[in-house]
Amino acid sequence: IQPGNTVEEAHMRNRQLIARWVFEKGAADKVVELVKKDGKTYVVVNDYEKVRQLFGELLAEIQRIKSTGDFAAARALVEDYAVKVDPTLHAEVLERYKKLNLAPYKGFVNPKYEVVTDENGAVTDVTVTYDEGYAEQMLRYSKDYSPLPSVN
């Protein structure tokens, strides 16, 4: 998103709508906070149970809107939470991202998680790696998760 623009892509809007709605509805109890540390903004979740409850409340409201065809409520929800970009936070994110020297992706590359266990089999850690590109990840997913046999 270029500075000064609004969120246009549906997948970005849905994430922002959820995050901003939960942030606002939980603000009084500091359920989720934006914390500044060393000039950087971090999201801190203080109450995961309350976040889960807020997700449920939002889901119920979206289902109500869909079930009743409440266009005005749908429009208000999207316009209030999904479209506008916080210009200060956006500038910080763009600056931080620029330092990574990465090309923007339209696909989603997820990390690989590896469970680390001790000699008794108890989980002691989970390592996270980003050692796959998009194509490699999709090929691995198709091999590991396809319900169809691989015949090639």
Topology:
Elements: H1 10-25, E1 32-37, E2 40-45, H2 48-68, H3 71-81, H4 87-98, E3 112-117, E4 123-129, H5 134-145
Helix pairs in contact: 1-2, 1-3
Characterise this structure.
The protein is of the alpha+beta class. The chain is built from 5 helices and 4 strands, in the order αββαααββα. It has helices at residues 10-25, 48-68, 71-81, 87-98, 134-145, and strands spanning 32-37, 40-45, 112-117, 123-129. The strands form 2 sheets. The protein has a two-stranded antiparallel sheet with strand order 1-2. Helix 1 (10-25) packs across helix 2 (48-68) and helix 1 (10-25) packs across helix 3. The radius of gyration is 20 Å and the shape is globular. It starts with 9 loop residues before the first helix and ends in a 7-residue tail after the last helix.
Radius of gyration: 20 Å
Helical fraction: 40-55%
- Segments where pLDDT lies below 50 for 5+ residues? none
Number of helices: 5
Order of helices and strands: HEEHHHEEH
Q: How would you characterize the largest beta sheet?
A: 2 strands, antiparallel
Strand order of the largest sheet: 1-2
What is the tally of beta strands?
Answer: 4
Portion of residues in beta strands equals 15-25%
N-end to C-end Cα span: 40 Å
Shape summary: globular
Mean pLDDT: 92
What class would the helix/strand composition place it in? alpha+beta
